[in-house]
Design a protein that fits this description.
twelve-stranded mixed β-sheet; 25 strands; mainly beta; four-stranded antiparallel β-sheet; 35% strand
Length: 384
């Protein structure tokens, strides 16, 4: 729940690597300058386990050792089960007599440093059901095949709150393969009992009863909540008080606001539709009257925790936002990533603010040009 902008697409080969793709919002494969091939989407206790806890096997020809359930098979607590080692992660959920795969991210490294990654943003229970990412539990064991086309997940119940898993990462055009053995533990009481019910629509509130508001909860699942009375754009204290949208704070915010979900700028008559980093969904920017205007040369924001920045093509005048920490020449994605007296130019680099009239503030070098940025205030940025 943080503030604005970003996104990408491309498919290249740097080694004999490949990737598969499927939703939620399918984007594409990308290859960075280090030869990292990545497939992205805009879509822990027990007994009798036949594998070590949280282990991996890479590029092996030996038979895979699948987990076996504890005996007698424990009664599994309903809910969400999760595991992560900081790089790889998975989230599954119970639903009736089945297990549903809601999210997964696994990677392996092949020859010459070729890194393959299969991952997707969290699916709702209904979307996992529609995609076939579920497996029936039989005698304490379940299997989910065809994940991202070729991956496979095998699980065995180890305790009332633990499931032993083996995830097989095996791309269709392999740069590498890898088998992950791990224990997923109970994380949340939410589950997929209503997996066959259509998701509510966060944009229109469809499939919610009258008086209810469709939002994404902390697990990125669409749920219907009683609509509150706080208008879009106003400050809010907690979830469920907004007339529409979601109560949250973006990276530039000092406090929570009611943000409306959007798909394009057409959904935001008083602002622009902002991409949320790491999320497949977007929200409308706050109305202009929610910000304090300021002079970017004078840096005259009343709040000492804020600085004056340019904001977007929708809000023409500089506004006060929570001050950033990035210095001259450092990377940024939005204006307020930068320190006071700097701004994010081109959505990539912090540049010093300067006076186009030749006064203060000025550039470090007398040979640097002051490129106009806010003509109405005689402000620009140092083009060094």
């Amino acid at each position: 729940m943080r503030h604005p902008w970003l996104l990408l697409v491309a498919l290249l080969w740097a080694c004999s690597g490949g990737s598969s793709s499927d939703e939620p919002t399918d984007t594409a494969s990308t290859l960075d300058g280090n030869g990292v091939l990545e497939d992205t989407m805009d879509d822990q206790t027990g007994s009798d386990a036949a594998l070590p806890s949280d282990s991996t096997t890479e590029d092996t020809q030996q038979p895979i050792e699948y987990p076996v359930p504890a005996q007698p098979v424990p009664e599994l607590a309903p809910g969400i089960y999760a595991w992560s080692d900081g790089t790889n992660d998975i989230m599954i959920a119970t639903g009736g007599d089945s297990i549903f795969l809601l999210s997964a991210s696994f990677q392996c490294e092949g020859n010459e440093g070729c890194l393959f990654s299969n991952n997707f943003s969290p699916l709702s229970c209904n979307k996992a059901y529609e995609k076939g990412y579920h497996g029936a539990i039989a005698d304490g064991v379940f299997v989910i095949e065809g994940i991202k086309g070729t991956d496979k997940l095998v699980g065995a119940i180890q305790g009332t709150d633990t499931i032993a898993l083996v995830y097989e990462l095996k791309p269709e055009i392999p740069c590498c393969t890898k088998t992950f053995a791990l224990n997923a533990t109970w994380d949340d009481s939410e589950n997929c009992e209503d997996f066959d019910q259509p998701d509510c629509d966060i944009y229109t509130d469809a499939n919610c009863e009258e008086g209810l508001n469709c939002i994404l909860n902390e697990n990125e699942q669409p749920v219907c909540l009683v609509a509150g009375e706080v208008p879009v754009g106003e400050t809010c204290a907690t979830q469920g008080v907004c007339l529409d949208g979601k109560c949250m704070a973006l990276s530039n915010d000092d406090k929570n606001h009611c943000y409306k979900y959007c798909q394009s700028n057409a959904d935001c008559p008083d602002g622009s539709c902002l991409t949320i980093t790491g999320s497949p969904w977007k929200v409308c920017s706050l109305p202009e009257d929610q910000y304090d205007k300021c002079n970017i040369l004078d840096q005259d924001c009343a709040d000492p925790n804020q600085a004056c920045y340019t904001y977007s093509s929708v809000i023409n005048d500089p506004i006060c936002l929570k001050v950033g920490t990035s210095d001259k020449g450092e990377q940024c994605t939005q204006s307020s990533d930068c320190k006071e007296g700097f701004d994010c130019i081109g959505g990539s680099t912090c540049r010093r603010i300067c006076s186009t009239a030749g006064g203060e503030p000025s550039c470090d070098s007398p040979f640097a040009s002051c490129v106009p940025l806010v003509p109405s205030q005689g402000a620009g940025y140092c083009g060094e």
